[in-house]
Predict the structure.
Amino acid sequence: MRDGEGTQATGTLIAIGGHEDKEGRRTILREVARLLGKGRLVVATVASHEPEGYFDGYKRAFADLGVTDLVELYVKERAQTALPETLRLMEGARGVFFSGGDQLRISSTLGDTPVARRVMEIFAAGGLIAGTSAGAAAMSDTMLVKGSNAESHRIGDLHMAPGLGLLPNVIVDQHFAERGRIGRLLGAVAQNPRELGVGIDEDTAIVVRGDRFEVIGAGGVYVVDGAGVTHSNIAEAAPQRALSMFDVRLHVLGDGDSFDLARRRPADMPEMRETRALEADAAGERGAQPGG
Amino acid sequence: MRDGEGTQATGTLIAIGGHEDKEGRRTILREVARLLGKGRLVVATVASHEPEGYFDGYKRAFADLGVTDLVELYVKERAQTALPETLRLMEGARGVFFSGGDQLRISSTLGDTPVARRVMEIFAAGGLIAGTSAGAAAMSDTMLVKGSNAESHRIGDLHMAPGLGLLPNVIVDQHFAERGRIGRLLGAVAQNPRELGVGIDEDTAIVVRGDRFEVIGAGGVYVVDGAGVTHSNIAEAAPQRALSMFDVRLHVLGDGDSFDLARRRPADMPEMRETRALEADAAGERGAQPGG
């Protein structure tokens, strides 16, 4: 949604790794509610091939969190995005919540439509855009799409597509503890280390404001930084080959940790200079006492 | 098996991530056969609670690879390790292959027994010690043992135990594409970054000679180096908390890649100094053009 907009992002993004708690403490949905205040929330269920169920689930989950003005946005076909009744649903909305399903349904149905422009306007006006599972993946510039997880360590099994671009230079992956996810996020970053890989566990989210995000929820967030990579075989190797990638920097973040996307550092942490000093010390030590 | 031995390792270790191909090209078993030559191979099935099946499977798989002198070593109870008929099986053996199951069965049944000492003698005499799945995990000094994978991002779900110590200062994890594995290997390394974490995919192996290993097989090998870690919450956080760990160095290796365990570098790759220069350049670039 960056294309042709040139708008400075001023709202808040919440990217959720899927399976957020809907019945207990609801840490993540509670944060969504807090940021919305009394505003209207559009629950966009377009990622599903069938709309049933998701909306009612969120309606129940949000009921006693103070979010009472909820509307469902579901379009089966791209043509429906221009209908007056579709756009009327979004009038006065303070936030949009993309539910799970297939991220290609979101991008192919909404990309470059009046609905997508309305989402961007809500965001630019200081509103909240949240997404869980496919809804989180779709926030990327270039997003990961479904492939065979079991085989995702093979270079040829990595599938990407143009996403909504709400999070520039970030590739979001979700359900991150699932089989094979770290391999495919690493492969995606190897393709262009300009992109920062962010893998989010289930019932875990990043809350992004400007260049900074904070982690909330039960699990972990994995940040894959390829800036220092010294070798990868992503361009040379045959599709059935396994990925080779040396010197990736990885951060694991938990509830309460923050990350600075511009500096590519955990927030409030010393610069790389000190990290490198630590590494040099360690290397020196090992050099002095060779062998295992 | 290091304790009290003081033996300089001179043999070859093969740690396999589980589910190695037994019917097709058999890249890994072929390498086992090549290294064995015409020597006797002891297939140790002690990791299983029941011995049936594994031995016959390997007998079939190795038959046309030239390994014809195969014997099965199975002990149900620790007391059996001292029986003359048990030790007679290992006479003249050139290699030992530990099959999968439960790594705690291997360490608790064989640790500090005549069988374990015989394994170490075979290794010291230039023989081959191979292990798949639990048999690979057990090679570690301190090994990962089964926990709940789904929850392994929580600090309290990390379970470790003393392993055989064939691979000093290395923690081997196997079936590495499975759910939650990267989180638990990171947690294990956070506990003491002296240990290098090595996660091995299925049908993939590391072949270790001295301080160097080479990767063979279909998948990837993930090397987790915690030497440069600037922060972790492993000691402070409550067991139900998620792991926090900043500035991990990660290498992804595929078939044909080599790694130097003493230098902690992919083999034949420039030293960290150059990596750091690359990182400094990248940081400088980002500093000059702030924003995402």
User: Anything to note?
Assistant: The CA atoms of residues 111 and 146 of chain A lie 18 Å apart.
